[in-house]
Amino acid sequence: MNKAMTFEKAMKKFEEIVKELEIGELTLEESLKKFEEAVKLSKFCSSKLEETEKKITLLLKDQNGKMIETPFTDDGDEGK
What we know:
Layout: H1 7-23, H2 28-60
Helix pairs in contact: 1-2
């Protein structure tokens, strides 16, 4: 994957490939190339998610190294 690839762009491309494969109009060779690209995109997205999870874990640790459990709240839903 190139440096400019974002998680969102990779997911969009992955979804496009899945749709192309589901339609079934590609040749076997084209399907294989698309499948290989989808696998690479899947690995890229998985890596990005793991990286993000590690960052979140670091942010949630207190100074003693213990995890601080803080419930997620969506500020936009308050008062509804």
